[in-house]
Amino acid sequence: MKKTLFDKVWDSHVVDTVPNGPQILYIDKHLIHEVTSPQAFNELEQRNIPLFRPDQVVATADHNVPTENQHLPIADALSKNQVEQLTKNCEKHGVTLYGLGHKYQGIVHVMAPELGITQPGMTMVCGDSHTSTHGAFGTIAFGIGTSQVAQVFASQCLLLQKPKSLRVNVNGKLAKGVLPKDVILYIISKIGTNAGTGYFCEYAGNVFEEMSMEGRMTVCNMSIEMGARGGMIAPDETTFEYVKGKEFAPKGEEFDKKVAYWKTLPTDEGAVFDKEYSFDAEDIAPMVTYGTNPGMGIKVSGHIPADIKDASFEKSLQYMGFEKGESLLDKAVNYVFIGSCTNSRIEDFRIVADYIKGKQKAENVNALIVPGSQQVAKQIREEGLTEVFEAAGFKIRQPGCSACLGMNEDKVPAGEYCVSTSNRNFEGRQGPGARTILASPLMAAATAVNGKITDITKQLN
Ligand code: SF4
Fold first, then answer.
1. Is residue 461, in this structure, part of any structural domain at all?
2. Which residues bind [4Fe-4S] cluster (predicted)?
């Protein structure tokens, strides 16, 4: 029987099947952070259940960490309490923690892949929806709720109904200035934020095959924004090369054995998906969102739809201060955020540095560069990018979720526009009343330099 990549990884992790019901799936890696783990640890303790496999759990602090003066005590009481609670719980239950001050600390979806914790063919979970990021390695990775975090703590397994399969194909040649972020924003703008509900998505086609691992992570990260449980890309030489030599990756003969297995994972020719979409790379352009969900996106050279009559659409435009039929080109923007688990890897910052080298940010713009992890921050310093960003007037912050969400000091003021490389543009996501426009790192950099939304393709030779 022909199998999909998803089927192969799923089936190899099934521990048991309830007749005509859900299946029990073994989980290889459980990632945790300070926001969603405390309740699950409490549940374990209340029920007097030990943590079953502490070695399979890895923790970091990311959401509530300050991104300035990380050496000082955290000023916000709630954030301080959550980070301290995580430290205590990890000590008590024998879980490895890359907490504040550790050289591996970072956003959970940035630090795990760069350490080789994420590997092809695994099942991975985290109490965080953007766990889908790890699917870039051909991994079944998805976010879980607090009670499921407790379930995995207690059994290293989850009781699950197998999702349906979806494939999104993109073939052709991307234009210069079109980044992986544009590809996923384009897909979501075409199929909507509910198209993936109940499905696990595989991305296929030469566009994904030719992408770097960083780019694939950006794409899989936003699978959740189209409603999918997760996204996956078949592992290939690019994947093996990325994993090779990473701190926790298998070494020597063990690595070769793994690669031989990983090579068997791609979807069989002729395997059938429950739903399939196909797009031409040539139709994709740099994207911007204009509304309050990630599906409300247009090409930067396009216009906000004029013909939609829907109360939530109108409300969304009202919140954003935009009109139907309007173009976003040349809109003044005062905040730019380049970071988050979608776009805070070294490749993102290299692209940004390449563009802004020798340029200055516009005077009115507050531009933040926030590396996704301590390792990325170190690479930025070592590659001399710090000087480029500072000379251009960008502020470099310390690793964490930062202005992706309003849970730390990096908030966007009410009514202000922020071009953000993150993944969510809901009302108040970056602070009460903040107006978020999602875009690629290159579009964000161009906005910072010009002080207004710019079509990057017009600036590249
Ligand atoms: S960067 Fe944003 S989306 Fe990613 S884990 Fe942090 S808060 Fe969530």
1. no
2. 341, 401, 404
Which two structure tokens, joined as six digits, stand for 366?
Answer: 């507050």
The string of pLDDT tens digits covering residues 288-304 is 999 999 999 999 999 99
d(CA 241, CA 237): 6
Going by the annotation, the residues of the binding site are: 341, 401, 404
Same domain, 351 and 230: no
The model carries a pTM of 0.97
Note the pLDDT tens digit of each residue in 256-266.
999 999 999 99
Cα separation, 117 vs 119, whole angstroms: 6
Q: Is residue 177 part of a domain?
A: yes
228: number of Cβ within 10 Å? 27
Nearest Cα residue to atom 6 of ligand 1: 401
272 shares a domain with 352 = no
Q: Which atom of ligand 1 is nearest to the CA of 405?
A: 7
Handedness of CA 178, 179, 185, 186 (dihedral sign): positive
Residue numbers belonging to the annotated binding site for [4Fe-4S] cluster: 341, 401, 404
Determine, yes or no, domain membership for 460: no
Residue nearest to atom 4 of ligand 1 (CA): 341
In a domain, 41, yes or no: yes
**Cα separation of the two ends of the chain:** 49
Q: Which atom of ligand 1 is nearest to the CA of 339?
A: 1
Strand, coil or helix: 315: helix
How many whole angstroms from 35 Cα to the centroid of ligand 1?
A: 11
Pocket test for ligand 1, best of 35, 128, 411 (most atoms within 8 A of CB): 128
The ligand 1 site (C-beta within 6 Å) comprises 62-63, 107, 109, 128, 130, 340-341, 401, 404-405, 422-423
Give how many domains the chain has, as a whole number.
3
